[in-house]
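Exercise 7. Given the encoded structure of a 575-residue chain, write a plausible sequence.
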């Protein structure tokens, strides 16, 4: 395997990263590379900063093993696993296990080396002699925001986790117990508040991608939103842990948490738009606008992205590390094992805002019916998927994205291929995953305001996103019905952006085991079961392709049994 280039956020960091290629911050300091040798000059320190960004923000993303696309979508019924070797297969069919399968792609224990990297930067940046004091303060704030991000992710997946407040030395005890959920939340909020007080609202163009005030506030907002949702915002946890219930719930059902979440989302919107110059992209062309917001690097809607460019040449036939552009384009290859399910397809609207109707299970329809209905779908669908026998709408006229250019005939089923993040991409193999888009703050505010009974505010925030998609304004005022509409909007707007799985869990949807995370997962089959073709398809039908497992224990992830056996962690219930 040979690495051709590495780009994290900006050219200067990309050049500086050469000083840290061995990722020294993941390992004990050696005689060859020491903390003192790295934190001597600004250029060397920038390599450490770049590594901290890459390793903190890479959590859950497929930059190491792209065969799985976005694992969370596989597990929440959005994409089917297709090939038997994908990571999602064992989890959807057998559930998560403390001994083996867990949806945290990096693994629980691997959350802490990146956190240690960020602490080492924060603790040693003052040693750099040629960096202004003001710049050092900003770097420290960046690291605190990165640490808060990783903890926010663990908070959502595991509940209470051990809180680490420094890089730790060899003499320090690593047997740190789990902290209560409230304490983890308070830590995330305080870290973000402290970081936002120092971070700039906007960076110069040559530093685009570094942490801003709005990004730090977005981390805070996401944590507070999940604290307000039913999974944590209760006195009765999903499964009883007795005296340690405070590890998995907040101990009360407090409506004020929704007000706090609403205000946190509004703070993101205010800072992003007024200070950072961000905005919801809406030129009146819904397909182009949504495509730009999700796919074009450094666009005005993205508050924080994973900007790691990994062009790796195929070497030695190692399929586990097959590079992103080995043959054509990684998303085309991913789509063969990860294709749209009917369960997710049914969330999307038609262009007029009404619901599409699809053939029922085992009902056969002509393929021309399939193409007719696909052409009626809303802009966000057309930007995200490429139906069979059709060119990709999000790359019009581009030979790379024509039907004839796609790989093979597909897996034999699937409602459509996945092409999100590659609008206007041409031959580009890499993409910048949007960790936080401003649209999430608008939907967070809509959800929270609705729960506080402030329907007017909720509709205002919701329609900013809904109407950008070219759909008529939502006017529903019933809280329960509007809640369902907002939840549907999350499913559509943020497909494949690592929201859906934990949204479903933290909402505690009543049908979670009946065709969402668990239950029958459906997809389309073609040509009487003979497999979809690039041309000449004659008919299609909807069918159950597998039955996924759901158990209440899976509301939160298990801690690895190897860590539990060390005696310092309490396992989440049911594992």
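Solution.
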């Amino acid at each position: 395997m040979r690495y051709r280039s590495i780009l994290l956020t900006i050219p200067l960091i990309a050049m500086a990263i050469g000083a840290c290629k061995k990722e020294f911050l993941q390992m004990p300091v050696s005689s060859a590379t020491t903390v003192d040798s790295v934190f001597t000059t600004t250029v060397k320190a920038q390599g450490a900063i770049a590594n901290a960004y890459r390793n903190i923000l890479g959590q859950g993303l497929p930059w190491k093993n792209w065969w799985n696309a976005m694992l969370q979508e596989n597990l929440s019924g959005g994409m089917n696993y297709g090939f038997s070797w994908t990571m999602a297969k064992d989890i959807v069919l057998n559930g998560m296990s403390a001994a083996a399968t867990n949806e945290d792609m990096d693994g629980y224990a691997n959350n802490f080396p990146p956190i240690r990297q960020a602490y080492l930067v924060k603790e040693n940046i003052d040693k750099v002699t040629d960096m202004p004091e003001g710049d050092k303060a900003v770097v420290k704030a960046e690291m605190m925001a990165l640490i808060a991000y990783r903890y926010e992710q663990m908070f959502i997946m595991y509940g209470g986790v051990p809180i680490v407040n420094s890089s730790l030395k060899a003499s320090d005890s690593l047997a740190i117990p789990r902290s209560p959920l409230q304490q983890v939340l308070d830590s995330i909020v305080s870290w973000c508040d402290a970081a936002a007080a120092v971070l700039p609202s906007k960076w110069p163009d040559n530093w685009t991608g570094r942490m801003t005030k709005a990004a730090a506030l977005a981390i805070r907002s996401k944590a507070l939103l999940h604290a307000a949702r039913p999974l944590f915002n209760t006195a009765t946890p999903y499964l009883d842990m007795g005296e340690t219930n405070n590890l998995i719930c907040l101990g009360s059902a407090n409506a004020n948490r929704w007000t706090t979440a609403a205000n946190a989302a509004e703070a993101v919107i205010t800072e992003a738009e007024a200070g950072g110059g961000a905005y919801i992209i809406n030129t009146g062309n819904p397909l182009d606008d949504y495509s730009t917001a999700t796919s074009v690097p450094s666009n005005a809607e993205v508050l924080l992205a994973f900007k790691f460019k990994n062009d790796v040449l195929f070497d030695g036939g190692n399929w586990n590390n097959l590079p992103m552009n080995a043959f054509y384009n990684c998303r085309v290859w991913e789509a063969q094992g990860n294709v749209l399910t009917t369960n997710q397809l049914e969330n999307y609207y038609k262009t007029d805002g009404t619901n599409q109707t699809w053939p029922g299970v085992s009902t056969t329809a002509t393929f021309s019916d399939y193409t007719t209905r696909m052409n009626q779908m809303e802009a966000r669908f057309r930007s995200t998927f490429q139906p069979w026998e059709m060119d990709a709408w999000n790359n019009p006229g581009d030979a790379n994205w024509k039907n004839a250019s796609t790989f093979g005939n597909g897996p034999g089923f699937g409602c459509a291929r996945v092409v999100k993040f590659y609008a206007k991409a041409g031959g580009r193999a890499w993409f910048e995953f949007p960790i936080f888009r401003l649209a999430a703050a608008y939907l967070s505010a809509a959800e929270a305001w609705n729960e506080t009974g402030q329907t007017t505010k909720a509709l205002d925030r919701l329609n900013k996103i809904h109407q950008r998609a070219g759909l008529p304004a939502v006017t529903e005022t019933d809280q329960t019905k509007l809640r369902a509409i907002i939840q549907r909007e999350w499913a559509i707007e943020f497909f494949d952006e690592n929201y859906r799985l934990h949204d479903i869990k933290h909402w505690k949807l009543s049908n979670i085991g009946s065709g969402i995370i668990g239950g029958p997962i459906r997809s389309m089959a073609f040509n009487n079961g003979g497999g979809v073709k690039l041309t000449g398809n004659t008919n299609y039908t909807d069918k159950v392709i597998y039955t996924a497992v759901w158990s209440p224990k899976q509301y939160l992830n298990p801690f690895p049994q190897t860590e539990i056996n060390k005696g310092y962690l309490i396992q989440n219930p049911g594992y």
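Remark. DSSP finds 20 helices and eleven strands in the chain. Students should compare their own answers with the one above.
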